[in-house]
Amino acid sequence: MKLLSRKATCNSHGQDSSYFLGWQEYEKNPFHEVRNPAGIIQMGLAENQLSFDILESWLANNPDAAGFKRDGESIFRELALFQDYNGLPSFKNALVEFMAEIRGNKVRFDPNNLVLTAGATSANETLMFCLADPGEAFLLPTPYYPGFDRDLKWRTGVEIVPIHCSSSNGFQITGSALEEAYQQAQKRNLKVKGVLITNPSNPLGTTMSRDELNLLISFVAAKDIHLISDEIYSGTVFDSPSYISITEALMDRNLELTNVWDHVHIVYSLSKDLGLPGFRVGAIYSNNATVVAAATKMSSFGLVSSQTQYLLSVMLSDKKFTSNYITENQKRLKKRCDMLVSGLKNAGIGCLKSNAGLFCWVDMRHLLISKTFEAEMELWKKVLYEVGLNISPGSSCHCTEPGWFRVCFANMSEDTLNLSMQRIKSFVQSITTDGDSRNRRQTVRNSRRRSLTKWVFRLSSYDHEPER
């Protein structure tokens, strides 16, 4: 061990979170409808598997792109040789047009301000390296994606200070919560370099309101700090209210020529909207030339392959395909979300009203034996081991209220989702029945105690009557 670095031997990766532990347990006993029907169903993985048929249909109809050909001629050698780490211009152009289309073409993006990265994980970490030094801090609203503890902190040395949000207003960010988090960082002698948000939110499955975005813009402007908007779920918005990108909010306030414009950065990826996490395609978008230059240099440590860029440049340049995909994918997400919400409601479980993402923020507070995070972990273990569902406890997302869980719905078939709902309903009925039995037994015991107390009281009164 003495021959290894501190980074190699430290235990600060964040992989000991229940979020990751649930994955490990799933991998030991994964559900399969034929081979292992009693196994654990993976509901802790935010993957979009609902529209693969649309992608596969496009590939079948465009064999040249899939076969690395242009006008029938092979370009394999061209793609296989060294490429500039700035990325293929054709892909960057297609990607920024796709980003604009997702946002209703209300905003435009300059491909020169785009930096390609190996997924959103790499993009977020790269921004940390560009914007903060070790020991400096970013503020994050809770609940937040559990992987941020790993992605933002592990190699960079950057600290996270939570902005505590509450269920009382649907976990929306407030001015008082922002200021309290900023003051908390100062008490810890941490220099705050910025705020990082996910919009749409992971794990809430909601989009930020215009009021929230304006609040954040005003806050970072007043503090002269950065704002990172992780928008990797922007194409998954399937219900009202409509999606507002941070860029749109800035433009509506005519802030293009101000310092704030240079202090706002967007993270994007094709992992969620196109369901391609294995392709490792992410991006940083920034109007800050220094950030773009630094991030481009750093991107050489995590490039997107030329083959992947070429294939996707052809796919995303097909406007008929992108229009159909975005519309149909959102319809399928809404249908699947409705299935989950309805199934949970039938089991006596409610959810935060969501309009985006691949998951719901599920309220199981009434199933806790006490209002504690210990009780939350006890319930989580029962759901994982006894019910056979891997869901993510709110504590892994740094939620301040025990009893909330993130439940994913887009990484499985309808039959598997229906089975998971049957399992959770049976579980709730069993603990409700057990609870009723306990309550009845307790009622009988209490009745007996009251009868005994009355008898003792009468006996005591007889023994102590005054002499006549």
TrEMBL record:
Catalysed reactions, semicolon-separated: S-adenosyl-L-methionine = 1-aminocyclopropane-1-carboxylate + S-methyl-5'-thioadenosine + H(+)
Q: Does the keyword Transmembrane apply?
A: no
List, alphabetically, the CDD domains matched.
AAT_like
Q: What UniProt keywords are attached to this protein's entry?
A: Ethylene biosynthesis, Fruit ripening, Lyase, Pyridoxal phosphate, S-adenosyl-L-methionine
> From which domain of life does this come?
Eukaryota
Q: Write down the required cofactor(s).
A: pyridoxal 5'-phosphate
What SUPFAM superfamilies does UniProt report for this protein, alphabetically? Answer: PLP-dependent transferases (SSF53383)
An example of a Gene Ontology BP annotation on this entry? ethylene biosynthetic process
On whether Lyase is a keyword of this UniProt record, the answer is yes
- What positions belong to coiled-coil segments? none
Where in this chain does the record put each Aminotransferase class I/classII large domain? Answer: 41-423
Q: What is its EC number?
A: 4.4.1.14
The protein's annotated pathway: Alkene biosynthesis; ethylene biosynthesis via S-adenosyl-L-methionine; ethylene from S-adenosyl-L-methionine: step 1/2
Enumerate the GO terms in the molecular function aspect.
1-aminocyclopropane-1-carboxylate synthase activity; pyridoxal phosphate binding; transaminase activity
Similarity comment: family membership:
Belongs to the class-I pyridoxal-phosphate-dependent aminotransferase family.
Under what name is this protein listed?
1-aminocyclopropane-1-carboxylate synthase
* Species name: Tetracentron sinense
